[in-house]
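We now fix the convention by which a protein and its fold are recorded. The integers have meaning only within a learned vocabulary of local backbone shapes. A complete example follows; check for yourself that the lines match position by position.
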Amino acid sequence: MDSFLRTHSAPSGDHRERCAYHHATQQAFLEAHEQAFHYFGGVFRLLRYDNLKSAVKRILRGHQREEATRFIAFRSHWRFASDFCTPAQPHEKGGIEGEAGYFRRNHWVPVPRARDLDELNAQLLAGCHADEQRQIADHATTVGAALLAERLHLLPLAEQDFELAEVMFPRVDGLGCVRVRTNLYSVPAAPGRTVEVRLYPSHIAIHDEGRLIARHERCYERHQQVLDLEHYLDVLERKPGAFSGSKPLAAWRARGLWPPSYDQLLDELIRRHGQASGTRQMIQVLSLIRPYGHERLRTAVEEALGLGCTDAAAVRHLVEAVDLAHAREALIELDALSRFERPLPVMTDYDGLLSQEVTP
């Protein structure tokens, strides 16, 4: 992911917490606050902003602002007060621009590479934790130590986060997708079934009867199909001929979820078992992603190929073998076994019983 992404920062003295989004929407703006509150372990009593539209509906005289309705509800939930800078007076925002520049130079040069938004935000969070060891000039303590001292003066976190999700109830179409805004997202549910979709700034979560059945990174383009190959494995196992040219497989390739080792295993399975049977076995291998995850299956496939084994059962064994490993029992010294020694029984006394007559 090399494209530029919008970032939101939450200020706190000499440090910031950062997260990235595809678009700087109001929903992302509010979610970034919650991420910061949890990072700092509390809520700031007063937050100062420039006059961004996510918070300000209209600028009035002086420091008076007509705030956005949802922003008012959000800060009421978290119980903090707001203040706004004078328009066109950037110096009123303190050192936030300088801190943003420092973070960009030290953590975004060269431009970071990531498979998706979650991985990129994990890199940003690691950068924030690394900055906790920094000691700013004219400060006696590190940033992390100042964070701990400041935490004592913050408001406690709310018992529950603010409800940021936009909820809708679309129906699954004949292609196994639900329409959210203008885009289609795949879902492992029967056509015609109504599901619950919760729309967040960076992802969408699809629930069926309270159970999470699918999660996709949110797409901000229009009229796109966001497909997950895992949602179509059952159908493709019945129709293996459609596998190699399917759109979900192409989507996995584009997202980096189909490594070269999968192509090598598929080619070997087809060579040994034929097109249809070999493809079915590959689909059965991919079904192991559901219980064990992508990384574990990828490791097992590469290990099997390294051993010269191209069999679906062998891959399954390697995936499951991790759970079968037992901790090695502690070795017992031979001297410690002496406590179990007992004298051997004497059998000669029993021989006397053989010479006695048995009375009827």
